[in-house]
Amino acid sequence: MSGAPFARRLLTVTANEDLGAYRLLRVADPDGPEPAPGQFSMLAAAEGWGGGEDERPYLPRALSVARHGGGESQYLLEDVGPGTRLLCALAPGEPLWSLGPLGVGFRPPAGGLRAILLGGGVGIAPLAILSDSLPAKPSILLGFRDLAHASGGAALLGDCRLASDDGSTGHHGPVTDLLSEELDRDPAAVVYACGPAGMLERVRAICAERAVACQLALEAGMACGFGACFGCVVPRRGGGYLRVCLDGPVIDGAELERVDAHAGAPA
Questions:
Q1: How far apart are alpha carbons 105 and 233 in whole angstroms?
Q2: CB neighbours of 244 closer than 8 A, spacing ≥ 6?
Q3: Which of 30, 164, 231, 240 is most enclosed, with most CB atoms within 10 A?
Q4: Who's near 170: CB < 8 A, 6+ residues apart?
Q5: Closest CA to 163 of 209, 202, 134, 111
Q6: DSSP state, residue 48
Q7: Are strands 250-252 and 241-243 parallel, antiparallel or unpaired?
Q8: Can you give the pTM of this predicted structure?
């Protein structure tokens, strides 16, 4: 996996584009390490990054690299709070602090197995760079709350099957219904998933029932991003804990006792 310099770097925003209900933040990073699919960066706006006088400052936001190429990294954003709101508002030419790439990414499927990519909400981001890296076209299953979010997600990933909570597009119901159909048709696959914790837990359970390998990209609140604070731990099967930032964010489903409620991307 790529290793980040042990210091944050001041980078420049090149574009901040509408993508349905999301934003696609593009950042110039010509001298940074090449990220592996599934790795993330800790991002913070260089200006205005704090809660105001006598208020607690915002922590950097851990965001998966959605794509990388031509000296530029891309990140998928959704305005879900004051920190992401500042990132969503950045304009081309403005500065941005970045620490990354960090963590353990996805591993390619072995033994000729096909890849199934499954994502929910803004958690679809690392599936884009993963899809770009695979030698064979994967099956892509994406779930969203409504059409506005689904249109942006489909634009990022391209050809895919969709599910929506409100039935406004694709399958009316959870995207894991589509996964069950795929595996019932052909279980010789490796499943790669990122999204809300409830979705990831269901993916883990479906794959465990069928003895199908799955790699889950978890998300948790992080203060450091490199394993020092132990603020992002999840329970490990057989006892002990794993740090999402250092032992993950991509963790084999078989290593997890369960996917905790805090260990998923916002829906």
A1: 17
A2: 103, 218, 219, 220, 222, 232, 233, 234, 251, 263
A3: 164
A4: 150, 161, 162, 163, 164
A5: 202
A6: S
A7: unpaired
A8: 0.92
SS3 59: coil
DSSP 257: S
Per-residue pLDDT tens for 97-110? 999 999 999 999 98
222: burial class by Cβ within 10 Å (0-12, 13-18, 19+)? buried
DSSP notation for 131-176:
HHH-SSPPEEEEEESSHHHHHHHHHHH-S-EEEETTSSSSEES-HH
Is the distance from CB of 189 to CB of 112 less than 8 angstroms?
no
Q: Record the tokens describing residue 111, joined without a space.
A: 């033994």
DSSP state of 239: S
R_g over Cα of the chain = 18
CA 67, chain centre distance (Å): 11
Q: What is the enclosing helix (H) or strand (E) of 108?
A: none
* Tokens 């954003």 found at: 77
Domains and CATH numbers, the chain: 9-102 (2.40.30.10), 114-255 (3.40.50.80)
pLDDT digits (tens, 9 = 90+) for 52-104: 665 656 778 899 999 999 999 999 999 988 888 899 999 999 999 999 999 99
Sign of the C-alpha dihedral computed for residues 33, 35, 40 and 43 taken in this order = positive
Query: Could you give phi then psi for residue 217, rounded to 5 degrees?
Result: -90, 105
Q: How many Cβ atoms from other residues are within 10 Å of residue 265's Cβ?
A: 28
Name residues whose C-beta falls within 8 Å of residue 69's C-beta, 6 or more positions apart in sequence.
Answer: none
